[in-house]
Structures are given as C-alpha cells and as structure tokens.
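Submission checklist for the structure archive. All mandatory fields must be present; incomplete records are returned to the submitter.

[x] Identifier: N6-adenine-specific methylase
[x] Organism: Acidomonas methanolica NBRC 104435
[x] Residue count: 182
[x] Sequence attached
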Amino acid sequence: MRIVGGERRGLTLRAPAGNATRPTADRARQALFDMLLHAPWGGRALLDGAHVLDAFAGTGALGLEALSRGAAFATFFDTNAAARAAIAANIGAARYETRTRLLKADAAHPPRAVAPCGIVFLDPPYADGLIPAALDGLTREGWIAQGTLLIAETAADAPSPAPDPLATRRFGAALVTLWRAA
C-alpha cells in the first residue's frame, strides 16, 4: 500500500498486523481522488487548503492521500492502538507532523471540533453499521456542517448511507458513496 498521487506519491504506508484494519486499496483510492478532481461538483479547489477528517483511519491512507494532493490539514481518529501506531509512523514517514492531528477517538462519540471539516472520510468495519452513529456524533460535535463532502466506504450490498448521493462507485466488495451534508 502506498500514496498514489501528489507530492508524496509512491510513499509506502505501514499497516497494522492482523485483520482488524481493512485499508482502502490503492486502485480504489486513485479512482476516488480522480473523481474528486474531475467530477462536475469537484475540482482542484475541493482539496486545495481543505481540512479533512479520516474518521476510521486504520492506516491513515485516505487522509494522507488528501494531504499529498493539497489538503492543508488532516485529523485522524482511531480507537485501535496498533492502528494509531501505524498512522503515527505513516505521518512521520510523510513528514506531515505539523499538518496532522491523531486522536484516540470514536467517530460516534468524538471530541468537539474547532471548526467543521471540508471533507470527511468514513471507512468503518463493514459489518458493524457504524456510519449512521458516526454521522450523528460528528454533526453534533461540529465536525460536519452543511456542505461538508462526505465519503463513505461500505460493503457493496449494504444500504446507501446517503439520501441523495453525488456519486457511487463499486470496487470489488466495496461501495464508495459521496454526498454533501444537508
């Protein structure tokens, strides 16, 4: 697994041992960020200077990819100690220590945000149904505001987390859904 685009393109990322983390595949990340850049509702301004939240960070690949492609700052949440160690190592390898914050936090019960994020990545364990609770908690604590771009990865056969998606893309057993917070 590696960063697939931007200033840190090719940087190999560390993943925690075991099956507790399911990182988004390089191919899916490339397709997602291509979509963000080229979709009618996307474009370079979407990422440039954005503050992003990688709410179920695992390896931090989504947030680090956003930083590599122009985001100004990324916050990473994970409750798993091995995942946080991998994220910290990846942040260090990318030399993004001053542009990141890594928290032991549950997306359903997050700390209060300083300001809403422009982009929120939600890639929780598939079988746990965590997205609705995360959306409630993140909205309640100010991480999500009207217009925030939400990007969720779910099992391909799971119900859509979005009432009115901007786009959906299937990648094998995964479905990526993008929508704006109402």
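[x] Structure attached
Curator remark: The beta strands are 51-54, 73-77, 100-103, 119-122, 149-155, 167-171, 174-180. The first strand starts at residue 51 and ends at 54.
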